[in-house]
Amino acid sequence: MSDFQTIDDLRLSGKVALVRADMNVPMQGGRVSDATRLERLVPTLRDLQKAGAKIVLLSHFGRPKGQRDDAFSLRPIAAELSLIVGEPVAFADDCVGAPAQRAVEALQNGQILVLENTRFYPQEEANDMPFARQIAALGDVYINDAFSAAHRAHATTVALAELLPAAAGRLMEEELSALGKALEHPEKPLIALIGGSKISTKLDLLNNLIAKVDMLVLGGGMANTFLAAKGTAIGKSLYEPDMLDTARAIMAAAQGRVCYILLPVDVVVAAEMKAGAAHQTVSVSAVPAEQMIFDVGEKTVREIKDTLTQCRTVIWNGPLGVFEMPPFDAATNEVAIAVSDLTKRGQILSVAGGGDTVSALAHAGVTQGISYLSTAGGAFLEWLEGKTLPGVAALQKAVPTIKTGRVIL
Fold this sequence. Notes:
By secondary structure, this protein is α/β, with parallel strands linked by helices. The protein has helices at residues 36-39, 42-50, 75-85, 97-105, 122-125, 129-136, 155-163, 170-184, 203-209, 220-229, 244-256, 298-308, 330-344, 355-364, 378-384, 390-397, and strands spanning 16-20, 27-28, 31-32, 54-58, 89-92, 112-115, 141-144, 166-168, 190-194, 215-218, 260-262, 266-270, 279-283, 292-296, 313-317, 349-353, 372-374.
């Protein structure tokens, strides 16, 4: 993933930089409720300002279904970004045409402008080249800083990179570097912690990982399916009866590839899923017929932690139990703290991502202790699955065949 240009490869003074950002942030009551994605955009904005660029931000927000809908306007998000950067951020009521052109022409070097939601046009999601040309006409260079949208072949993630000199922003650069170190060129042994409710939603991921990792730790509902596939009675626990053969095939393939799969040896069970529910920890061979598995047990946690101390690289996607609800958050919390401690001591490189994973690590209070925490969601999952991400491929394709020094624009 290292074959792409960065901001350092472009001469930017006085140039209009069209920056594909991810400003698709959660809102409550017309206000941004989680500004993480905006905050992570700041390093790119600051470096573009230092370089003397005029900064024009492009982003989608929500699912307006290809038509203008004020409920999905980026205007309040631009106002929030202004607070974060501590300076005015201009806003244009469109992403193409006269309103956008006038707003771009009014920019001075170092100033920031947000264009209206690109998904107000159906051509965005269709990766329409004429639409991309309208946007490209507004700028001189293209910077993609939205890894979280890189799995979408849209006009502002792919076509623009074919029309203008293109480079990765700082967040995209950081993400690709971290992911490359974690899975493409990892320090071994490499362990993957994979949770979640279903095998069916992570089948490609599991098949890709067993070919690359040394150890695969399974938790959540998907671990129940693997236990059931081995003939273990799991009471009334959530599992996928139609995926038992698939689970057995994955275990056989892992054995053939010398990938050790670590399944729970003990579990936390209860009659119902609610906070503070009466619960007990039992061996996986002694799950009561009328109860359900909601977390892995203490012996399993100790085994995971012991295994982690033998590893150099950790990838994490998905909680080990129902982390949102005590007491079923204990295993995820304890393992998260262990990963954080090993990371801080320099013993492992840890990369984690996916919405539930980010929430679980935040719940455990260790987000600052992870080497790289991806907020990318779908793009992170597709990367784990070994898929080509169109937005990344477009940046790699944009690299000049002969590259001598800085690109002169």
